[in-house]
Amino acid sequence: MAYDSNNIFAKILRGEIPCTKVYEDEHTLAFMDIMPQAEGHTLVITKEHAETILDLSPAAAAAWIHTVQKVAKAVKKAMGVDGFVLMQLNGVAAGQSVPHVHFHILPTSLGTLMTRAHGAQMGDLQQIQGYAEKIKAELAK
Ligand code: AMP
After folding, report:
1. pLDDT of residue 119
2. 123 within ligand 1 shell (Cβ under 6 A)
3. What's the chain's Rg over C-alpha atoms?
4. Are 68 and 44 in contact (CB under 8 A)?
5. Which of 4, 39, 103, 139 is most exposed, with the fewest beta carbons within 10 Å of its own?
6. φ/ψ (deg, to 5) at 137
7. How far is CA 39 from CA 21, 51, 119, in A?
8. Which residue of 6, 12, 33, 118 sits with most ligand 1 atoms within 8 Å of its CB, as the best mutation to test the pocket?
9. How many angstroms does the Cα of residue 36 sit away from the middle of ligand 1?
């Protein structure tokens, strides 16, 4: 299916709507999920337009994983957890709700994650901002 450039992450990339950014480079952007399934729930997206991982160029995929690793390390430290879940949904059939490829970094366990509905409830924006500051501080080290 053709990429929908009106999806919410494309709008964030164009600066048309705000996000709580924690990291950005030439190829990727990381920001806080506004309907978190865990405290510190962070998203990493590519700047290349792609709906799913299958639509992404190998170079963009490599840059994306590089950022996921960097940001996940900071999220783990900032949130003081021993483990985290990476989640990545491809296609409506899998439950993907935003058609721009992204990784979820979830500093929680799979068991806890499964008790929380996906993208269902707005988080506390002040609390989310506080987690973002901690993550950014770790990234700056
Ligand atoms: P998925 O269902 O895998 O496509 O995940 C999309 C994620 O984007 C969900 O976890 C939503 O909570 C999150 N989300 C939707 N809109 C925004 C937004 N404007 N800013 C940050 N996260 C968002």
Report:
1. 86
2. no
3. 14
4. yes
5. 4
6. -60, -40
7. 16, 26, 13
8. 33
9. 8
| 8-140 placed in CATH 3.30.428.10 | yes
Ligand 1: nearest atom to the Cα of 41: 10
From the CB of 98, is ligand 1 less than 6 Å away?
Answer: yes
Strands 28-32 and 42-46: antiparallel
Strand extents, DSSP E, 69-115: 85-87, 102-106
53 touches ligand 1 (CB under 6 Å):
no
Q: Which of 100, 102, 104, 118 is catalytic?
A: 102
Tell me, what amino acid is at 24? E
Q: Other CB atoms closer than 10 Å to residue 100's CB: what's the count?
A: 23
User: For residue 29, what pLDDT is reported?
Assistant: 98
User: Which regions in the chain score pLDDT beneath 70?
Assistant: 1
139 lines ligand 1 (CB under 6 A): no
Distances, alpha carbon 24 to alpha carbons 27, 82, 115, in Å = 8, 25, 31
User: pTM for this structure?
Assistant: 0.97
The 10 Å Cβ neighbour count of residue 30 is: 29
Beta bridge partners of 28: 46
